[in-house]
Amino acid sequence: MARKVKRPTANPGSLGTACQLDGKPANPYAGTLKRLRDAFDSGRTRPAEFRIAQLQALSRFLKENRKLILDTLKKDMGKPAVEADVSEIVLCESEIKLALNNLHTWMKDEKVEKNLATQLDSAFIRKEPYGVALIIAPWNYPLNLLLVPLVGAIAAGNCVILKPSEISKNMEKVVAEVLPRYLDKNCFAIVVGGPQEATALLKNKFDYIFFTGSSRVGRIVMTAASKHLTPITLELGGKNPCYVDDDCDPQNVANRVAWFRFFNAGQTCVAPDFLLCSRETQERLLPALQRAVTQFYGKDPQHSPDLGRIISEKHFHRLRGLLGSGRVALGGQWDEQERYMAPTVLVGVQETDPVMQEEIFGPILPIVNVQSLDEAVAFINKREKPLALYAFSNNAKVVNEVLERTHSGNFGGNDGFMYMTLMSLPFGGVGLSGMGDYHGKFTFDTFSQRRGCLLRSPRLEMINQLRYPPYSPRHQRLLVWLVDHKLGFPCSIL
């Protein structure tokens, strides 16, 4: 079973500062890392049978603790059962099923094309685990964003240290206390705690780091990884634009935008952070958005069982401060005691307003007016490349033009983040919104080193005589010809 690693007693600090015990620098996770590295070096995680057993155990964790997980997500964020089930449990289960059904195929050596000089040899790519990986997850989807990377790391044959978010404190407790009952304790460990513990962890050498969170902390993680030249995946956030063309059905757009903007109370990294549309389209959208919100959450959304809550007082106060940007056209109500914020739409928003300076991560939707598609594209392209970008139009040419003329980690035409349900698509950011991708086989690839291999016969030395000195023009011509040409049929000899 995986082992829970308790928090060390450390002086206050933050990511990027040293963690100390009794006034002296210490490494409270050295023993845990040694245990996992010894297990990896022993070859324990390499057989397909071991990987399958751990994936099956992870599946049992989800099935046997489904009610506990749903109750815990409700306790942390007021997350409705449907949203929690679909976005947390079901997506994790789908990842596990895909890995179990395809693991043997994914693990197979990949044969490659050869030139004439190597036609008698065996050339292939072997997918090897990196070793001991660190997965750091955020609080907004505390199970999904922890376990989906874990599925790929297990499938690829790695040992893993998991660092769940301390902000979603109840889910952190479930992960730390329940998940270790299902996983091999020599190959997997869970570290709980906040910035101090994360700082102490990052001072260690890992073979791979997978981080999901803010760009600010992503820079800190990348700096720590660079000290050991550790490969890294960063799944970050950003301000995701959503362009709405004049040629659209305003109610259809409103229904779709409202659902994926206010899903999980807006605390979703791929949710649209602002709408771009003409003033005329804005006037058509506002009553449609009002109808959508009323249909989804009733006349008083505060009492709707289908609208979540803000994760913490700190985030609640930050969001409340953003309500001063532009003018509230819809919603705007809040209740600090419940950490409730109504689905809110802001109009008259300027590019310089606070709400346009940071990722919102809450149920607030600003509308910025543009007069044309060209102006919208220019507005998008002068900002950092977003994690996601959306375009709505009845005209497919408009959607395709937005796709062709912009850059983003992911793109959705006439809908929101349904692409997240497709494990056949890679998910990841670009530029400030991240690097690397995952989901489905892409996660397996992320946690696998592609090792190039060439196996030659110890015999037939006479074939090699051409490459040895003393060189001659004739040998040079033959060598160039052998290296530069390929045969249309495979041949290998070991």
Give a short synopsis of this structure.
By secondary structure, the chain is an alpha/beta fold.
Report what the structure shows.
With 494 residues, the chain is of the alpha/beta class. The protein has two domains: 3-236 and 441-448, Aldehyde Dehydrogenase, Chain A, domain 1; 241-420, Aldehyde Dehydrogenase, Chain A, domain 2, CATH 3.40.309.10. The chain is 38% helix and 17% strand. It contains 15 helices and 21 strands. It has helices at residues 30-41, 48-64, 66-77, 81-107, 144-155, 169-178, 195-202, 215-226, 250-262, 279-297, 313-322, 373-381, 396-405, 441-446, 473-484; strands spanning 3-5, 20-21, 24-25, 110-111, 122-129, 132-136, 159-163, 188-191, 208-212, 232-235, 241-244, 274-277, 327-330, 334-335, 340-341, 344-347, 364-369, 388-392, 410-413, 434-435, 448-455. The strands form five sheets. It has a seven-stranded mixed beta sheet with strand order 1-8-7-6-9-10-20, sandwiched between helices. Helix 13 (396-405) links the parallel strand 18 (388-392) and strand 19. Helix 2 (48-64) packs antiparallel against helix 4 (81-107), helix 3 (66-77) crosses helix 4 and helix 4 (81-107) runs parallel beside helix 5. Mean pLDDT is 92; it is low at 6-25 and 489-494.
